[in-house]
């Protein structure tokens, strides 16, 4: 059994560090803030508290997290790579992840900006310096079940002359990628960047969506997220009073309901099993709109991907309240994450497992009384 160090690290979007620290204090009162920089936070287990083998840091605003082993001062990179392995010691790691912290000014982060070539060079140096007893797996773009539970060596480039070293286990799909960043690229035919947000949400949520499933998207204009669903072969009902892009309207599996959610006829949703929402409004407005659908007697939604806007970062403190409200509708698997392609907003994935349709209500016609 690996002895876990009493420090953890988390990387996040630049400018969200204090939001992350407040979230950690709320959920894990035994953790204390330690060293931090823009886009990089470390926390210490307080007093005599020691992390147990099954500890999970389930923070919405942590894009990646792990246990901190220490830092390496970088002069010669080859020597620094050897120092990394001294910190790893006998921990049986199977992969090497290297990524830089988000050092952009708050609000200026660009998720499309590729990491510098130096990141791959450092990863190669660290891999080449591995002891002979270490059996590393080559970088893979597809999560593999056989590797789940294995340790990964993490090297976060905090500054060019300062690397922080840690470890994390391969678990959810995002843990297979450095920094929790899925390898995504905006297709040429995409009409908006919402395409990438939806694609990332689908990969992260790992919903068991069958082929040819029917989706409804609330707040669908101009259609980028709908395109991501259509490209997977799904049917999409787009609900939005605004205009959709012509390229989306021409798709044979897309239907536009040009109305607000509150005005949309409920019969249009009877065959819908999956729901997405990205409404440019405060969280409770979005949740009100969604609740009006999922609690309707003749509508049966199995799973949802919701974007909740946070006009003020202080609303992040109310996320537990929002998630509990969604659970009250019968969704027992509810998770939230600040995606790479989220800005001042979060993604919520909610699933009803097992899926239970509402009982069919048969209306009986009133009998006419016979004349006496």
What features would you describe in this structure?
This protein is α/β, with parallel strands linked by helices and 372 residues long. It has two domains: 7-180, 2-Layer Sandwich (VC0802-like), CATH 3.30.2130; 194-351, Vaccinia Virus protein VP39 (Rossmann fold), CATH 3.40.50.150. The protein is 21% helix and 24% strand. It has helices at residues 17-27, 77-88, 117-128, 194-205, 224-230, 246-249, 283-294, 319-327; strands at 7-11, 31-37, 40-45, 64-73, 93-100, 151-159, 162-169, 214-218, 235-239, 254-257, 274-278, 303-309, 333-337, 345-351. The longest helix has 12 residues, at 77-88. The termini are far apart.
What is the CATH topology of the largest domain? VC0802-like
The number of distinct β-strands equals 14
CATH class of the largest domain: Alpha Beta
Helix % is 10-25%
Strand percentage lies at 15-25%
Radius of gyration: 24 Å
| Shape-level CATH architecture of the largest domain | 2-Layer Sandwich
**Number of helical elements:** 8
Major beta-sheet overview: 7 strands, mixed
Query: Which stretches are poorly predicted, pLDDT < 50 over at least 5 residues?
Result: none
Report the mean per-residue pLDDT as an integer: 93
The total tally of domains equals 2
What's the end-to-end separation, in Å? 87 Å
Category by helix and strand content: alpha/beta
Shape: elongated
Task: Give the H and E element order.
Answer: EHEEEHEHEEHEHEHEEHEHEE
For the largest sheet, list the strands in their spatial order. 2-3-1-4-7-6-5
């Amino acid at each position: 059994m690996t002895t876990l160090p009493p420090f953890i690290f988390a990387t996040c979007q630049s400018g969200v560090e204090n939001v992350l620290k407040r979230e950690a204090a709320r959920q894990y009162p035994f953790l204390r803030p330690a060293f931090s920089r823009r886009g990089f936070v470390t926390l210490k287990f307080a007093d005599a508290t020691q992390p147990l083998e099954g500890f999970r840091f389930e923070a919405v605003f942590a894009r990646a997290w792990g246990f901190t082993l220490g830092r390496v001062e970088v002069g010669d990179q080859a020597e620094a790579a050897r120092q990394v392995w001294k910190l790893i010691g006998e921990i049986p790691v199977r992969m090497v992840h290297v990524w830089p912290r988000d050092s952009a000014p708050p609000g200026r982060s660009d998720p499309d900006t590729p990491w510098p070539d130096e990141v791959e060079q450092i990863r190669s140096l660290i891999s080449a310096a591995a002891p002979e007893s270490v059996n590393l797996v080559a970088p893979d773009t597809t999560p593999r079940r056989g590797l789940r539970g294995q340790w990964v060596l993490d090297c976060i480039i905090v500054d060019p002359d300062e690397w922080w070293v840690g470890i994390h286990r391969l678990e959810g799909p995002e843990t297979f990628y450095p920094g929790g960043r899925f390898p995504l690229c905006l297709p040429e035919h995409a009409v908006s960047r919402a395409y990438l947000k939806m694609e990332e949400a689908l990969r992260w949520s790992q919903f068991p969506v069958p082929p040819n499933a029917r989706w409804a998207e609330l707040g669908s204009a101009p259609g980028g997220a709908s395109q991501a669903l259509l490209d997977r072969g799904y049917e999409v009902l787009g609900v939005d009073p605004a205009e959709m892009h012509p390229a989306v309207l021409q798709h044979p599996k897309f239907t536009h309901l040009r109305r607000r959610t509150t005005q949309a006829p409920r019969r249009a949703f009877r065959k819908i099993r999956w729901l997405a929402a990205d409404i440019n409004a405060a969280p409770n407005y979005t949740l009100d709109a969604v609740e009006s659908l999922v609690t309707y007697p003749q509508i049966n939604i199995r799973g949802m991907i919701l974007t909740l806007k946070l006009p003020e970062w202080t609303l992040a403190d109310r996320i537990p309240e929002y998630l509990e409200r969604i659970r009250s509708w019968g969704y027992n698997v509810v998770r939230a994450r600040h995606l790479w392609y989220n800005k001042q907003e979060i993604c919520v994935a909610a699933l009803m497992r097992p899926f239970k349709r509402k009982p069919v209500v048969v209306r009986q016609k009133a009998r006419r009384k016979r004349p006496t």
